[in-house]
Amino acid sequence: METRIDDLEIRLTYQESTIEELNQVILRQQTEIDRLARELERLKTHIENSHSQTTPTDERPPHY
């Protein structure tokens, strides 16, 4: 019986360690997702602004 309890305690310790490692991975991934979402918004804004600053296609070029 004592051996069984010791084995269970060892398994529990490994599981707690694994859970903590997985939690750290999730935190890093969420940080990266947040960073990428901000970058995507910045790029979308940049594209929208650059489209609004283009000249119309039917406008004559300056050399005419």
Please explain how this structure is put together.
The protein is mainly α and 64 residues long. The chain contains one helix and no strands. The protein has one helix at residues 2-52. The longest helix has 51 residues, at 2-52. The radius of gyration is 28 Å and the shape is rod-shaped.
Task: Give the topology.
Layout (H helix, E strand, L loop, with lengths): L1 H51 L12
Major beta-sheet overview: none
**Number of discrete helical segments:** 1
Tell me the helix content: over 70%
**What is the count of β-strands?**
0
Which structural class is indicated by helix and strand composition?
mainly alpha
% residues in beta strands:
under 5%
Q: Give the rounded overall mean pLDDT.
A: 90
Q: How far is the first residue's CA from the last residue's CA?
A: 96 Å
Task: Describe, in short, the structure shown.
By secondary structure, this protein is mainly alpha-helical. The protein is built from 1 helix and no strands.
